[in-house]
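thought: fold this chain, then report.
action: predict
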Amino acid sequence: MEIGKLAVRKFGKRLREIRQDKGISQMELGDRINVTATYIGRIERGERSPSLPTIARLAHALSVSVADLCQEI
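observation:
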């Protein structure tokens, strides 16, 4: 698998783990950063690669650092 695609999948998996650990739904997380729950789901499944500003907003919404969010990559 291409390294970029692998990184996107790992990021999505990490995002899902953190979101679920915090008891936040995809819809709630999407509302917090002004995107749809569908978009959050696509990120979590590795179908979408979020921009750096979106990654920063996700980290802030989850009260974690960008480094924590990207830990598994």
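thought: worth noting. The CA atoms of residues 33 and 57 lie 6 Å apart.
final: tokens above.
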